[in-house]
Amino acid sequence: MKGKVVDASGETIIGATILQVGSQSNGAITDIDGNFTIKVPAGTTLEISYIGYITQRVKAQPNLNVTLTEDTKTLDEVIVVGYGTVKKRDLTGAVSSVKSDIVKLTPSANPMEALQGRVAGLDITKSSGQAGTGVSLQLRGNRSITASGKPLFIIDGMPGDYETLNPNDIESIEVLKDASSTAVYGSSGSNGVVIITTKKGEEGKLSVNFNTYLGFNGWSTLPKMNSPQRWLDTRMEARKWAGTIEDDGTVYDEIYQDAVNAGHTIDWVDAMMQTGSTQNYSLSISGGTKKTQAYFSLNYSNEQGQYTNDEYKLYSSTARINQEVTKWFTAGMHMQTSYTTQEKTSSDLSQAMRANPFGTLYKEDGSLNEYPVLEDNRQVNLLLNQNRDVYRNNANKFKIYLQPYIRITPLKGLSLESRLSMNLNYNTTNKFIGYGSYQFYDQAGTGALNASKEETSQYTSASVSNSRGWGYSWENILTYNFKISNDHEFTLTGVTTYSDSQSESSSSNAVGILSNTYYWTNLAAAVGNKTVSSGYSMGKSMGFVGRLNYSFLGKYLFSASVRYDGNSKLAKDVRWSTFPAFSAGWRISDESFMESTSDWLDNLKLRIGYGETGAAGISAYDSWAILSQSIMGLGDEQITQYSFPQKLSNPQLTWERSKIQILALMLLS
Known about the structure:
five-stranded mixed beta sheet; mainly beta; globular; Ferric Hydroxamate Uptake Protein, Chain A, domain 1
């Protein structure tokens, strides 16, 4: 069925959500003209919603027209900001909010893809179509010379892993964009902050939800390639103008023309690509009593890419429990775990589009032809690595986040929350290049067809890389909210933060794997060179935050904060710095002279802001001199020597700072 969504004045509403009641995935979004199309049985109840408007439920019928009315109550909606919350009407910083009904409509294992086109100033790109490829996020431009532009991700108050978070577990996503909003996070918030709030158990009967979807990944838009005949004609024309062919075509490539006539041509792109699929299964259970609430979910996602052997699987779980011990003491725990396995392909689309199209992919016995191109022993069959017995490249990752907290509320408006975030992750990457792989024939040449394994063993290899990271963050947040004469409202916030992170890595490589059955499981049996390497890094940071929020009559707003940050990555004498910020707002629509506009304007706000953020955009030991060890041979004697060939220490290496000012007029419904 088709329909259209407009507001009370008849203007179309772009981006309104239409959802089949009782379904978590069957929905649609209105286009630029307010139109939508959705497949539902006759008489089905539809829920139409849009931020700032009252949600409506209507019966599905052909050519449905829906008029949404504005909801002034949304101005009292609570928005999550750094180390606290604030009413939407009282915002003085640049914050965008996306709710769960929008997130779960996007069929992706990565919840950040749901923000595409929904947050002004946020650029979301994907580096490739490979299964499991994450997204790159850039908020309001690049703010560092060398450091990553990735925003800080906060999940339920503490840093977490958004890439493996089940979209169905998300309650809301807030994006803090300007420095007046992000400065309370100091150096960590220099690229913006994305705050994710997950669902929690609620008082009432047990609730069980199951969601699933199946999609297909294919039909990519590719450059239109020449047909083999056109390719041959172009080649002939080029040689003619180059003077290497006579006008009568006597030097014409007859062998290629015969191949065209016989149908012995190769469409490399078509042979390499397939129609992939994406499937997801999610189960959640929630419920609780007045004092105890719990939420638990399991999630499985499987993405098959458009290349053979391009696969990504995700297993994740979330558990959250909150317990009211007394009226003034609450404790809880949030746990997030995930395990991913990724099989990576070696397919190269650009190479396939350049390859010579004349020849046969398969031999008469049905096996792959190692050198399929006519009179070209350099072009190896690009499909060889589709055989997992000759080529493997996979990665496995395990992550766990554990976040316990306690909250004490001894007086009205006064609260103290202490929370700890502990994380542990293991990563393993295994790669095997064996006999019969593309790389094997590309390096060994046609001589490998008749040579023994021992003679060509130097063209096989395997490697194993392992890394482990662990760390913790500890935050204490003191908040006091009070009013004076009901006209003046104050919120004072004090925060201390401390974090410690460490990582170590090791890798082993071996050349000369004599049997394809070994893969990477028996590097000691390799007959060629073997190398081993390892590494370690650590970093610590600490911060102190103070913030004041003030509201007079609900229409004159002010916020100021200061953060004192230290980071062990920086040189000893310059590792501490101060990051101030302030913002102010005037809700013009609440003034008496704006009463005549109340029927069409809910909230007109003028705001200004200024803030400073910093980035410690260096690796853990860039401020140190790097000592190098080497062996010098003198006859039969070996002497160990040390030097500083890589870099010298820089005692002035300190923070990158960004100073941001903003003046904006906000129209909110």
